[in-house]
Each structure stands twice: as structure tokens, then as C-alpha cells.
Write a structure and sequence with these properties.
This protein is an alpha/beta fold. It has helices at 2-5, 19-31, 48-54, 58-66, 73-89, 97-109, 114-121, 124-144, 201-218, 242-263, 287-298; strands at 44-46, 155-164, 169-179, 190-195, 224-229, 234-239. The model has no long low-confidence stretch (mean pLDDT 93).
């Protein structure tokens, strides 16, 4: 783990003093024209999931945004596991996975938020399934990660936010785990996203989006991005460069254009078949998606 994420001081890149201002100007110049069709009293909020959806199947995006959010076991599992990792980082006694998971569940059950409301009202079978799956993922994390030393500056669920174009464009996110910190203009932070299941190219894009927001926030990019796949105990790392950030600006600006024209410009959503067709809420009325799933089943 240390070999995958660590680096000697002399191997860490140094970035220009004006990089943040250069990136902000480039993004605002590219995105501002798309914001003209927004109603005067509205801004555009962009997070990694919304950005990924608008570059994927826009029909699914429109359906998801029209549908009221509902907690389910697979969604809640990620939140519980992330809370368990947060507790483990700061736990002063011996770490026993069932105890940590039960503490995470208890904290959310006592919370006034939507997850707490769902936990208090869900059936015993759903709660047992959630506990079992969360315990499995958290145990896999403990099996492969060393205890996070205070000197590594570990922070879980780190929130990022950048406001551009006079506050009309808001980029936001929450990183599962950050390690290290910049030293002056020298990069030192590592951003880690924990994943269950297999690799998908959009996971790289999610972390690049976080890297851009982090750079806009403090002026120095992270040194390294890493998706960590719990089921495989496998890293997919990527070094951050200025070229990476400029490519992300192009993706974000294009996403802003697609999203504003879709939500406020009257443009009809495009369709794109893929793995998401299996859980799409409008699959019954989507000819392209239905045919795609039939072809997959035939193969």
C-alpha cells in the first residue's frame, strides 16, 4: 500500500503559482456562454454523478432527476462503509469490524437525515442485508490497508467545492479518503475512491473531476489519484498533470453545455445503451435499451 501511494519529496511535482487562476479562467470562458439560458434566479450544481450521466444516457439522467430519491441497500452500503472507515481512522481501541459497522448504523439511525429515516422504517431483512454487505466491504478494506498513521494526514469524506462564473456554476464533491498535503507549490495529496465491483472508465473521470475542484480550491493539484477496488484488492492509480486538468475542463464545460440545453433549452435527451440499462427506471418504454439487453442475453 505504501509503495503504491507513497513518493519521495524530490519525486513530487511542483506546479506554477498561477495554475489555479489559469484553470479558472479557462473553465469560466468555456462554460459561461452555456449559462446564459439559465433562469436568472438559478445556478447550475454539478457533481461527479451528474457529470457522468450527462456524458452517458441523457434519457436516464432526465428520468433519475424526475424521480424522488429512494434509499436502497446497495446505495446505503457505500455510505455505511465510508462512515466505518472514518470511525476506524480515529478509533482508539482494537478495531473489531462488527462493532464498527454497528456503530456506523447506530449513528445514522439516530440522525434526522433521510438515511436515518429510512433505517428506522426499513424491514429487518433489509437492515440485516445492509449490515452483512457493509461488514463484508469494510472487512476487505481492513484486510488490505495498513492502519492510517496521523503523519499521513488521513481525512475521510472530505468535501470539495468551487464556485465559478459569479456563483452560477458550482462544482462539488466528497472524496472517500485523502492522504498527505501540499507543501507550498509542491503536490503531496493523494485522493482515493473506494469501489465495489469492477473497473469502469468513468471512475477515472470521477477522480479527475475531484482533482480539478481541489486545484481550484487551494491552487495545487493532488499528486496522485487512485480508485481502490475492495473486491479485488486492486489499485488503479493515475498521476495528475496539467494536461489531465485541462482535459477535465473540456469535459466539464461540455457537460455544462449538454446539461443546460437539456434542462432549460428544450433539447430532447439522447439515448446511450450500456450496463445501466439493467436498472434503468424507463427500460420498459425504451426500445433501444430493451433490444440491447435482449442481445446481451442472447450472447
Amino acid at each position: 500500500m505504501v509503495e503504491q501511494l507513497g513518493a519521495q519529496l524530490e519525486d513530487r511535482p511542483v506546479f506554477a503559482d498561477d495554475l489555479r487562476h489559469h484553470l479558472r479562467a479557462a473553465l469560466e470562458t468555456a462554460a459561461a456562454p452555456h449559462l446564459d439560458i439559465l433562469p436568472e434566479d438559478e445556478d447550475l450544481f454539478l457533481h461527479k454523478h451528474r457529470l457522468a450521466q450527462v456524458h452517458g444516457c441523457e434519457t436516464l439522467l432526465v428520468a433519475d432527476e424526475a424521480e424522488e430519491f429512494e434509499w436502497k441497500v446497495p446505495i446505503a452500503r457505500g455510505t455505511i462503509v465510508h462512515k466505518a472507515v472514518e470511525l476506524a481512522v480515529n478509533w482508539r481501541r482494537e478495531i473489531e469490524p462488527p462493532t464498527i459497522i454497528d456503530e456506523a448504523l447506530s449513528r445514522f439511525e439516530q440522525d434526522s437525515g433521510s438515511l436515518g429515516h429510512w433505517l428506522r422504517g426499513c424491514g429487518e431483512a433489509d437492515r440485516a442485508e445492509l449490515r452483512s454487505e457493509s461488514l463484508d466491504s469494510f472487512t476487505k478494506y481492513l484486510e488490505c490497508w495498513p492502519p492510517l498513521k496521523p503523519a499521513w494526514r488521513p481525512v475521510t469524506e472530505s468535501r470539495l467545492r468551487a464556485e465559478l462564473c459569479d456563483g452560477r456554476l458550482i462544482l462539488a464533491g466528497k472524496v472517500d479518503l485523502t492522504l498527505g498535503a501540499a507543501q507550498g507549490r509542491r503536490a503531496g495529496k493523494v485522493l482515493v475512491d473506494f469501489k465495489t465491483g469492477g473497473f469502469a472508465p468513468v471512475h477515472r473521470e470521477d477522480l479527475r473531476f475531484y482533482a480539478l475542484v481541489e486545484t481550484l480550491r487551494i491552487g495545487v493539484p493532488p499528486r496522485l489519484l487512485a480508485s481502490y477496488y475492495l473486491d479485488q484488492a486492486h489499485f488503479v492509480p493515475e498521476v495528475v498533470t496539467e494536461e489531465t486538468l485541462m482535459a477535465t475542463i473540456a469535459r466539464v464545460a461540455d457537460g455544462v453545455g449538454r446539461l443546460t440545453s437539456l434542462l432549460h433549452g428544450g433539447r430532447s435527451p439522447d439515448k446511450m445503451v450500456g450496463p445501466a440499462c439493467r436498472w434503468c427506471p424507463v427500460i420498459d418504454t425504451c426500445h433501444e435499451g430493451t433490444r440491447h439487453l435482449e442481445e446481451l442475453d442472447d450472447r
